[in-house]
Amino acid sequence: MQRQPTLLSSCARAATAAEARFRISAPAFGPRESRIIGLDEQSALLVRDLAGKPWGGGRFLEFEAALPDDALLRRASGGTALLSEELDGADAVVMIAMAADSAEAASIIGDAAAARGIMSAGLVLPGNALGEARNDGVVAALRPNAMVLVVLREADDLPEMLSALRV
């Protein structure tokens, strides 16, 4: 007996009214209110470049300085802002780092996101032109401060990673 492939539309038509009650009829995910923050000078350059591309709701920022109980950020679009203000209404924080000296920034941002129940991700970029990960220190800095930690092989993977996070 030869079997015919079951098409997805066939399955949808075959469902009974009782089965249809369990279908999810909610709309697709809405835009995310992400904050993408470059933690060091090298990653800040990438953040500025990415900010010029079309995104669905992300704000691109650079870590400037630690303040008592807060941090000063620079908007890629210009001007400065406080971390506490930028986290209002945010549902995700993506920290991008290339240098190991970003530990203080990661700690401040990670703690602030955790205190507000905001999902935090750390993206570690390769540290030299050969694409070799000189990132042990960066990983150690981000590991305790990010719920999700991803080490990228190439900086060119960054836009795709941000798209996957629905920035």
Give a structural overview.
This protein has helices spanning 8-14, 17-20, 41-51, 83-87, 103-116, 136-142, 158-164; strands at 34-38, 59-67, 70-75, 80-82, 92-97, 119-124, 148-151. Strand 1, helix 3 (41-51) and strand 2 form a beta-alpha-beta unit. It is α/β, with parallel strands linked by helices and 167 residues long.
Helix-strand layout with pairing:
Layout lengths: L7 H7 L2 H4 L13 E5 L2 H11 L7 E9 L2 E6 L4 E3 H5 L4 E6 L5 H14 L2 E6 L11 H7 L5 E4 L6 H7 L3
Parallel strand pairs: 1-2, 1-5, 5-6, 6-7
Antiparallel strand pairs: 2-3, 3-4
Named at the architecture level, the CATH assignment is 3-Layer(aba) Sandwich
Principal-axis shape equals globular
Question: Tally of extended strands?
Answer: 7
Succession of helices and strands = HHEHEEEHEHEHEH
What is the average of the pLDDT values? 83
Sheet with the most strands?
7 strands, mixed
Structural class given helices, strands, pairing? Answer: alpha/beta
Rg from C-alpha positions? 20 Å
The order of strands across the largest sheet is 4-3-2-1-5-6-7
Identify the CATH homologous superfamily: Tubulin/FtsZ, GTPase domain
Q: What fraction, in percent, of the residue positions are helical?
A: 25-40%
DSSP helical segment count: 7
